[in-house]
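Continuing the series of single-chain predictions for the mutant panel. This is the parent chain; the variants come on the following pages.
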Amino acid sequence: MVPTASINVLNIAHRGARAYAPENTLVAFAKAKALGCDMFEMDVRLAKDGIVVVYHDDDLVRCTDAKTKFPGRSRYDVADFTHSELSRLDAGSWYIAQLKLSREERLPFLQTLSDGEIADFVSVSEREHYASGNIKIPTLTETLSLAKELNLKVNIELKSHPDGHPGLVEAVLKDVQTTQLADQVLISSFDHALLQQVRQQTSRIAIAVLTEGPIKAPVAYLRTLKANAYNIGCHKDYKRHGFGGLSGKRYLTHIDEVRNAGFDVNVWTCNDPQEMVDLLAAGVTGLISDYPNRVGDAIKSFAQGTC
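Parent structure:
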């Protein structure tokens, strides 16, 4: 495989390589390394006792057995559980249950997962491990320690909570400082007020404006926030029109404007091989994907001029 750095594009594993391991777990982040990623993206929240844990959803229902371990609770929000309680949960079996479904019944991001990819990237022993009950929700400290061990960059997404998020930024920055990974970390969030808090407290750590789609006057906005990167969602009309239609051309012009101003552009969540190639041609600096193997193949094809 052609090294990603050879064309200066980051292969970024979304929630770890979540097509091939339970998302936002240490095994998913290790899988990202095995698949040649430069960076992995993860989501962080505060547990009830203030410990930063790695988990995407507001509640625990989709990716854990919280209802079984703690029956009768009125809510299953991450913020309602202490770290000790969260550490009792099984965060892996749900993924194996998904693989047993037909493609049409799976979660959308797993519906394009082929039998060949499962055979190549999810071994029998891994499946047994994921279903064992031993896969846990990691803390941010545990995850950063693994990233340091694997020499991987990390995109930390700060998740907002409907009840607020006092202390999240401070706790995350403390964990980054403790693990001495400031130069390997990119912090992003849809809640741009959180990014402002990060920048008010440190100029050393890179931040990325996270957005579903193009925003107005992106360059001026990024400069106002003193951001380093722009993490933009994939072009929504790509499946129907590619980048050939008017909206697609506007999307590419938008990316070009941001790149020409000196900011990095990382596109999420890109799982379509042809879209990956088109985005590489557009000059993006990173592709955030559930399928890092496909990103690696796209980068190789693009570098060799065979796409």
